[in-house]
Write a structure and sequence with these properties.
This protein has helices spanning 11-20, 28-45, 71-82, 92-106, 115-127, 145-155, 170-176, 188-193, 197-227, 237-241, 246-259, 275-278, 280-302, 325-353, 376-392, 414-446, 453-465, 475-488, 491-502; strands at 2-4, 24-26, 86-89, 130-131, 134-136, 160-163, 166-169, 310-312, 315-317. The protein is mostly helical. Helix 1 (11-20) packs across helix 4, helix 9 packs across helix 11 and helix 9 (197-227) runs parallel beside helix 16 (414-446).
């Protein structure tokens, strides 16, 4: 069971809970910390001072003082009124990640809510109850208000949720799980809504998948280089030590490992290759550096307090920790980086198919060129997807629109950045899957049964889900199979299989 302390949550923890349903609980020390801060809230309620969102309205209504009898009802009203999302529901793994991160944020004990509220979120996770959360409606300013409100709605027994694959009324889900709705009290509604957890959840899932896709792109590039009789000279470690960007060094070393033991000199080999082969470390490496930077930012945000106001030793401090700008910028940057990763992959695919460039391979890798078109149209699809990715790379973070009566006059649009990134990731995966199809087919047509120890294992794993073929066929089926392979493959398992084979 994962214990939430508020300060130790990792990206790996998020994946474990979101996708593998690892159980969650609040650490006892965090519970005591939350209970102590709640005592300060109770003391403030009995005092004469106005405290934002505790005994006042929110946003532009912050100057409206609430009657004591209306305080709890206002928290419920906040949840209901902010449930204004639209569009398709977020994937269930994204919602589970959002719930986990929110519970961890509350466990810091700076929000002033009762510990039972955070424990109730954990209870939903452990029971497999996933709120239905519409994907659109957040501008990422006072946090992801609409997505988090739809999560909170399930906590109070309203709205809809998924349980065992069924979409049901939330009250029915709670009943089947033997859970009771939470009766919100002062400060608790706003504390469930204020935060960046929706965009961060999507970002964490995308980052995890992007790391895997990076490995897939490296492997595809190595297969393409081998199929095109290219030279590995451009991956010489001395070159990259002379320009030691961490990602560039990482990519070059990875290419050398992938090609180790399999390269031989070819008659008429070029002194240097085209950029899509020669500059893999520089391009892929730049993507890797963006991944590392996003990991740094997300690791901080996973264990940050994003509520407003926050409670420090009895002092309520109102600020803007809910603002999504620190996430929106790296989310936008990752979408731009994906354009690089997919764009250079599409160029390698073109080189594999183009008879003027592919070193004697059949035109478009057709078995019988002319009678057959081979993979000609697969490259067209890759080009279309890259073009769409370029549109998705337009930064949402540069597009603020004031909201809430101009009180929230500069917003991050971070949730839009996250949603665009998820779309772009899916497109990039298909582009790189098309290169896998082309590179593996080219190696087959070369009669290359053994390429290198790592590439041989990778190609064998790929061929189990996407066997080789002759003649023309419905390429969309093979593209879909290749894309699923890249989405599901665990590269550590692939390379472990290689080590087992070697021993």
């Amino acid at each position: 069971m994962l214990k939430l302390t508020g300060s130790t949550l990792t990206l790996e923890d998020v994946i474990a809970v979101a996708r593998r349903n690892v159980a969650v609980a609040i650490d006892p020390q965090a519970i005591r910390r939350m209970d102590r801060s709640r005592q300060k809230v109770d003391g403030a309620l009995a005092g004469p001072s106005a405290v934002y969102a505790l005994n006042t309205g929110v946003g532009l209504l912050a100057n409206v003082r609430l009657e004591e009898t209306a305080i709890n009802q206002m928290q419920v009203n906040l949840v209901r009124s902010h449930c204004c999302g639209t569009g398709d529901p977020l994937p269930q793994d994204a919602v589970r990640a959002m719930m986990l991160i929110r519970a961890n944020t509350l466990a810091l004990g700076l929000s002033g809510i009762r510990s039972k509220v955070a424990e109730a979120i954990c209870a939903l996770l452990n029971a497999g109850i996933t709120p239905v959360v519409p994907s659109r409606g957040s501008v990422g300013a006072s946090g992801d208000l609409a997505p988090l409100a739809h999560m909170a709605l399930t906590l109070i027994g309203e709205g809809e949720a998924f349980l065992n694959g069924q979409k049901l009324p939330a009250a029915e889900c709670l009943r089947q799980a033997h859970l009771k709705p939470v009766a919100l009290e002062a400060k608790e509604g706003i504390s469930l809504l204020n935060g960046t957890q929706a965009m961060l959840a999507l970002g964490c899932l995308a980052l995890h998948d992007l790391r895997s896709l990076f490995d897939a792109a490296q492997t595809a590039a190595a297969m393409s280089l081998r199929a095109l009789h290219g030279t590995p000279a451009a991956y010489d470690e001395r070159l990259h030590a002379a320009r030691p960007h961490p990602g560039q060094v990482h990519s070059a070393a990875g290419m050398c490992r992938l090609l180790a033991g399999g390269m031989r000199a070819y008659v008429g080999i070029r002194v240097q290759d085209a950029y899509c082969l020669r500059c893999v470390p520089q391009v892929h490496g730049a993507v890797w550096d963006r991944i590392l930077e996003a990991e740094r930012v997300f690791a901080i945000e996973l264990n940050s307090a994003t509520d407003n106001p926050l409670l420090f030793h009895g002092d309520f401090v109102s600020g803007g920790n809910f603002h999504g700008a620190p996430l929106a910028l790296p989310l936008d940057t990752l979408a731009l980086a994906l354009c690089q990763l997919a764009g250079i992959s599409e160029r390698r695919t073109e080189r594999l198919l183009n008879p003027a460039l592919n070193e004697g391979l059949p035109a478009f890798l057709a078995t019988n060129p002319g009678v057959e078109s081979g993979l000609m149209m697969a490259q067209v699809t890759a080009a279309a997807l890259v073009a769409e990715m370029r549109v998705l790379a337009t930064p949402a973070s540069a597009c603020s629109i004031p909201t809430s009566g101009n009180q929230e006059d500069f917003v991050s649009m971070g949730m839009t950045s996250a949603l665009k990134l998820m779309q772009s990731l899916g497109l990039a995966r298909t582009v790189i899957a098309i290169e896998w199809l082309a590179a593996a087919r080219a190696l087959d047509q070369r009669g290359e049964r053994e390429v290198s120890s790592m590439l041989d294992v990778a190609r064998a794993a790929f061929r189990k889900v996407c066997p080789s073929w002759t003649g023309d066929c419905d390429l969309s089926l093979r593209m879909a199979a290749a894309t699923r392979f890249l989405a599901e493959v665990e590269w550590s398992s692939v390379w472990n299989a290689r080590e087992a084979l070697a021993s």
